[in-house]
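Sharing in case it's useful to others searching the archive later.

Someone asked me privately for the predicted structure of DUF3284 domain-containing protein, so I'm posting the question and my answer publicly. Question first, with the sequence:
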Amino acid sequence: MTLEKFDNSEYIQVSELLNVSSKTFFDEIVRSILGDIQRQTNRKMHASQLKSGLTYKKKISGRSSKNAEVIIKILECVPSKIYSASFTSEIDITTVTYEIEEKEENKICVTYTETFKLLSGKKLRSQSKLHKMYLHKKSEKKSRKLLKHIEEYILMNQNKE
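And my answer, the predicted structure tokens:
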């Protein structure tokens, strides 16, 4: 895990070796994004339409009402290589990136990076340094679990075919 803090922002980065192909992993991310877009906008899109600059709005449960609606913007989308998007609310911007590196047939290294930045003049409730460290450790664990869950889902569905 890499944990950095700079200019009122923080990021977490984890890398995992997964036993799936880069194409299959990327296709699963795209399938999930297309489903999210359809649920949020009632628009059906094709994978070829996921390009840098595409935006849509989403309500995220579990956030305060001021922070519940986010604008999702695709920053980068290169098949089997990288997917990056920003989530902008009234108080923060979170950027997530999946970088995929082919290692060998059906084996990849995925580096997941999540950057959180408070917008100028915005503040979160005060947190102790220990509490922040706990939250970062929890975020690292959640990120690793997410990557492993995607791998398990792909493998489970491959076995059904």
